C-alpha cells in the first residue's frame, strides 16, 4: 500500500482547498442541524450544491458523458476529504448523486439517464428512497407495496416508512411488488415515482433529535408510467442491491470520524475533571486511547479499500465493515464527549447553559439513527460473517 500522494494529486488537493476556503458559506460552519423542511434552507442548500457542481466538485467519478467529471477515485476521495475538513454544508442531493444516479448509469434506459441525471447533479430535483415498510426493514424482500400493470401504467398501493427527505423530495426511487405469486425476491420491481402524483400522502415523523427528517409515505391508486420502470419487470431486486451497495459506501467517512475525535480531544484538553484537565486523568486517557485505536484502524481499513478500488478489485464486504465501524465509532465518540462535558454535556442546543453549542447530544442521538439506517449493525455483522468469513447462516 502506497500512502503518499502524487505531486499532481497534491496540487489538486491544494486547488480544492483554496476554492473551498473562498467559497464555503460562512454561516453554516460548525452549526448543528436546522429545520429539515424549511423552504428557505432547502433553497440555500440547493444553491450550494449548484455552486459546487459548477466549480466541478460534484460527481467527480461519474463518466463525463453523464455530466460527471470523468475523474478518478483519488480525486473523488480528495474532494470528499476536503469538503468535510472545510465543514462545508451537506449536499442536499446526496441520495441522487451517490445512490440512484450510479444505479441509473448502470441499469437505466438512455431516456431515463437524459431525463434525470442532469437535475440530480445540480440538486434541481431531490430524491428519496422508498425501500422500508412496516414489517420490511432488515428483511427488505418482505415488502408489500403493490404495483399492478394496467396498460401503460402501474397502479401503486401501499405504505413506506422512515423515508428520509420525502417531505422535500421531487422523486422517489421505490421498490414495489409486481408479482405476488413469485418467490419473494423475484416479484419486485424498481420504479421512479414523481412525488407530486395524486394519491401520495407524506406524514413527517419526529426523531429524538427534535428534527422531522423522515416520514411515512402512503400510496393510494398512484399512477406511474411504465417508462419509469428501471431494469426489467420483476427483476428489481438486483437493481435495489446496486443502490444499497452505493448507500453503504456513502455512510462511512474517515475524515468526519477523525474530526469528531479531534473535537473530543479539544474537550479533554480544555475541560477540568477533579481540578485538572480531563486529558490528564488516567481513566480518561484509557478511554481516549481505546477510541483512538479504533479511529486509526478505521483509517487503515479505508486506505486498504482505496487501494483495492485503485487496483480495480471489487469492494467485497469492505463497505459493510466501513458502515458498521464508522457509525458505532461516531456514536461512542459523542458519548465520551458528553461525559467529559459533565453536567452541561447532555443539554440540548436550545438550553441557555448549553456546552459546545449542543453538538454532542445531537450527534449522540443522530448517530444512533445511522447505526440503524442503511442496514443495522447486526445485519452488517451477518453480511461480514457469512460473505466475508464464510461462516454458516
Ligand atoms: C435515520 C434513519 C433514516 C432512514 N432513512 C430511510 C430512507 O430514506 N428510506 C428507507 O427506505 N428507509 C430508511 N430507513 C429505514 C432503515 O433502512 C431501517 O430502519 C433498517 O433497514 C432496519 O429495519 P427496521 O427498522 O424495520 O428494523 P427490523 O428489521 O425490524 O429490526 C429490528 C432489530 O432486529 C435486528 N434484526 C433483524 N433481522 C435480523 C437478523 N436476520 N439477524 C440479526 N438481527 C436482526 C435488527 O438489527 C434490529 O436491531 C432509515 C432509518 C433511520 C434510522
What's the rounded overall pLDDT mean? 91
Order of helices and strands: HHHHHEEEEEEEEHHEEHHHH
> Low-confidence stretches at least 5 residues in length (pLDDT < 50)?
29-33
Strand coverage percent: 5-15%
Structural class: alpha+beta
Structure in words:
The chain has helices at residues 7-23, 39-54, 73-85, 94-107, 110-121, 236-251, 254-270, 282-310, 318-340, 359-372, 377-388, and strands at residues 127-130, 146-150, 153-160, 171-177, 188-194, 200-205, 214-225, 229-230, 272-273, 276-277. Helix 8 (282-310) packs antiparallel against helix 9 (318-340). The longest helix has 29 residues, at 282-310. It is an alpha+beta fold and 393 residues long. It has eleven helices and ten strands. The chain is 47% helix and 14% strand. The protein has a four-stranded mixed sheet. A four-stranded antiparallel sheet has the order 2-3-7-6, with no helix packed on it. The model is unreliable at 29-33 (pLDDT under 50). Strand 6 and strand 7 form a beta hairpin. Bound molecules: flavin-adenine dinucleotide. Flavin-adenine dinucleotide binds at residues 128-132, 137-138, 162-164, 214, 369, 372-376, 378-379, 382. The site of flavin-adenine dinucleotide has 20 residues, from strand 1, helix 10 and helix 11.
Amino acid at each position: 500500500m502506497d500512502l503518499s500522494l502524487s505531486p499532481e494529486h497534491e496540487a489538486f488537493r491544494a486547488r480544492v482547498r483554496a476554492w473551498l476556503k473562498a467559497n464555503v458559506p460562512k454561516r453554516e460552519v460548525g452549526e448543528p442541524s436546522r429545520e429539515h423542511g424549511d423552504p428557505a434552507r432547502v433553497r440555500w442548500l440547493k444553491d450550494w450544491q449548484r455552486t459546487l457542481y459548477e466549480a466541478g466538485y460534484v460527481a467527480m467519478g461519474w463518466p463525463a458523458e453523464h455530466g460527471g467529471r470523468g475523474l478518478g477515485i483519488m480525486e473523488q476521495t480528495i474532494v470528499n476529504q476536503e469538503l468535510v475538513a472545510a465543514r462545508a454544508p451537506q449536499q442536499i442531493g446526496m441520495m441522487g448523486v451517490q445512490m440512484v444516479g450510479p444505479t441509473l448509469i448502470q441499469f437505466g434506459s438512455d431516456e431515463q439517464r437524459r431525463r434525470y441525471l442532469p437535475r440530480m447533479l445540480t440538486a434541481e430535483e431531490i430524491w428519496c428512497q422508498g425501500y422500508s415498510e412496516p414489517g420490511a426493514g432488515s428483511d427488505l424482500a418482505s415488502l408489500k407495496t403493490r404495483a399492478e400493470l394496467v396498460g401503460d401504467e402501474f397502479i401503486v398501493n401501499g405504505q413506506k416508512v422512515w423515508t428520509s427527505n420525502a417531505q422535500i423530495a421531487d422523486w422517489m426511487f421505490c421498490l414495489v411488488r409486481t408479482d405476488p405469486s413469485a418467490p419473494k425476491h423475484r416479484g419486485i420491481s424498481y420504479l421512479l415515482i414523481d412525488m407530486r402524483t395524486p394519491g401520495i400522502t407524506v406524514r413527517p415523523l419526529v426523531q429524538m433529535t427534535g428534527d422531522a427528517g423522515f416520514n411515512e409515505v402512503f400510496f393510494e391508486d398512484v399512477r406511474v408510467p411504465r417508462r419509469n420502470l428501471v431494469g426489467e419487470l420483476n427483476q428489481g431486486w438486483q437493481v435495489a442491491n446496486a443502490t444499497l451497495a452505493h448507500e453503504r459506501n456513502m455512510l462511512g467517512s474517515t475524515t468526519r470520524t477523525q474530526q469528531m475525535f479531534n473535537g473530543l480531544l479539544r474537550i479533554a484538553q480544555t475541560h477540568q475533571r477533579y481540578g485538572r484537565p480531563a486529558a490528564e486523568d488516567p481513566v480518561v486517557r484509557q478511554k481516549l486511547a481505546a477510541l483512538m485505536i479504533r479511529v486509526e484502524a478505521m483509517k487503515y481499513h479505508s486506505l486498504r479499500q482505496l487501494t483495492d478500488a485503485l487496483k480495480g478489485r471489487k469492494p467485497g464486504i469492505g463497505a459493510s465493515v466501513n458502515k458498521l465501524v464508522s457509525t458505532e465509532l461516531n456514536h461512542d465518540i459523542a458519548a465520551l464527549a458528553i461525559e467529559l462535558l459533565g453536567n452541561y454535556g447532555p443539554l440540548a442546543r436550545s438550553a441557555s447553559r448549553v456546552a459546545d453549542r449542543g453538538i454532542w447530544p445531537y450527534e449522540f442521538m443522530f448517530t444512533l439513527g445511522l447505526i440503524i439506517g442503511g442496514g443495522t449493525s447486526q445485519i452488517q455483522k451477518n453480511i461480514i460473517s457469512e460473505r466475508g468469513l464464510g461462516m454458516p447462516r
